[in-house]
Amino acid sequence: MTALLEVEDLHVEFRTRDGVARVLNGVGYHVDAGETLAVLGESGSGKSVTAQAVMGILDTPPAFVTRGSVRFHGEELLKASEERRREVRAEGIAMIFQDALSALNPVFTVGFQIEEQLRLRRGLSRAEARARAIELLDLVRIPHAKQRVREYPHQFSGGMRQRAMIAMSLALDPEVLIADEPTTALDVTVQAQIMDLLAEIQRERRMGLILITHDLGVVAEVADRIVVMYAGRIVEHADALSLFRSPGHPYTAALMRSLPRVDLKGTALETIKGLPPSLLRIPSGCPFHPRCPRAEDVCSRVVPGAVGLGLGRTSACHFAEEVVRG
Ligand code: SF4
Ligand code: MG
C-alpha cells in the first residue's frame, strides 16, 4: 500500500564556502493518515532539513537534493512544478514552526491571515471566511475568539500565538501536518497543553502528524512511531512502545538516559559526551563512534547498515541485536 507521505533515501548537500556539508545521507520515513511520527535528534541532525525538503522550501544556504524521493499519495514531489508544490503546501502538507512570532505577519490581524487563505483558495466571501476563522480559533481553544480574531500577533501570548499558528495551518484541512519544535519556546505547562491539543486534533481529523523535536520527553505520550536522527542519518526507527522499553541504538539509549525521570528523582542525569559532528567532516564508519560508549574497532572503519529488529524496527548499529537486549 502507498503511504500518505513517503520520504526515501534522501540526500541533501549544502555547498558552502568551507566545502560540501552532507546534511542528509539517505533519510527515509513515512507517515499515514491518523498516525503520529516523531522525528528526534539534536540540532544539526537533519530533522528540519528533511521537513524543508518535503515542503519544497529548502533554500538556505545553497542546498541541493542530490538523490532520493518525496512522495505524497504516490506523487513524486521532488519533480513537481513550483506551482504544484505551492498547491501541496497550501492544501496537502502544512507546517508549523517553533517561532510563531516570526511565522505570523505582524502587520495583519490573526484573523486576516487565516481568512486570506480561505478567500484565495476556497473562494469564501469575507463574512464566510471570518466565521470560519472564528471557528478555527475556537477549535484551538483561544478564548473570546470573536474578539481575538481582530487582534494582531503581538497581542497574543507565546502559547496563544502557537495556537493561532495551528489554527492557520488547519484552515485548508491538510492531510499531513509537520510541527517543527512547536513547543520549544514555551514554558513546560503550556508545552503540555499545546502537545495535547495537537494530539487531539490529529486524532479527530485523522491527519498524519510529524513531530520534530530534540526532546524525547515531549513526544513520549503522543508518538506512534519514532525515528531517531544523527548526523543526517536515521539511526533508529521503531514503534514508540518498543523504543521506550528497549532502545535498539546506543544513541537512543543515551538520549533516554539524559531524560529526567519521576521515578529517579534526585539522581544526576547523564549527558552525552562530546558534540555532534561537523557535517563538513562526518566521522568515518559509524558517525556516532567518537561519542559511543560501546564503540569497537570496526565502528570507525565500517558504516553500519540498518539491522532489522523485528516488528519493522531497524537500528543502524553493528551491535544492534545486543543493544536491544540491554
Ligand atoms: Fe556505537 Fe559502533 Fe553501534 Fe556506532 S556501530 S552506535 S559506534 S556500537
Ligand atoms: Mg531545527
Describe it for me?
This protein is an alpha/beta fold and 326 residues long. It folds into two domains: 177 residues, P-loop containing nucleotide triphosphate hydrolases (Rossmann fold), CATH 3.40.50.300; 73 residues, no CATH class. Helix content is 35%, strand content 23%. The chain is built from 13 helices and twelve strands. Strands 6-7-8-3-9-10-12-11 form an eight-stranded mixed beta sheet, sandwiched between helices. A four-stranded antiparallel beta sheet has the order 2-1-4-5, with helices on one face. α4 crosses α5, α5 crosses α7 and α7 runs parallel beside α8. It is globular. 42% of the residues are buried. Bound molecules: iron/sulfur cluster and magnesium ion. Iron/sulfur cluster binds next to loops. Its main location: membrane. It is found in: Cell membrane.
Summarize the model shown.
By secondary structure, the protein is α/β, with parallel strands linked by helices. The protein is built from 13 helices and 12 strands.
Give me the secondary-structure topology:
Layout: E1 5-16, E2 19-31, E3 36-40, H1 47-55, E4 63-72, E5 75-76, H2 82-91, E6 93-96, H3 100-103, H4 110-122, H5 126-139, H6 145-148, H7 158-170, E7 176-180, H8 188-205, E8 208-213, H9 216-219, E9 225-230, E10 233-239, H10 240-245, H11 250-257, H12 297-301, E11 307-308, E12 314-315, H13 320-325
Parallel strand pairs: 3-8, 3-9, 6-7, 7-8
Antiparallel strand pairs: 1-2, 1-4, 4-5, 9-10, 10-12, 11-12
InterPro entries: AAA+_ATPase, ABC_Ni/Peptide_Import, ABC_transporter-like_ATP-bd, ABC_transporter-like_CS, Oligopep_ABC_C, P-loop_NTPase
Domain ABC transporter: 5-256
Organism: Saccharothrix mutabilis subsp. mutabilis
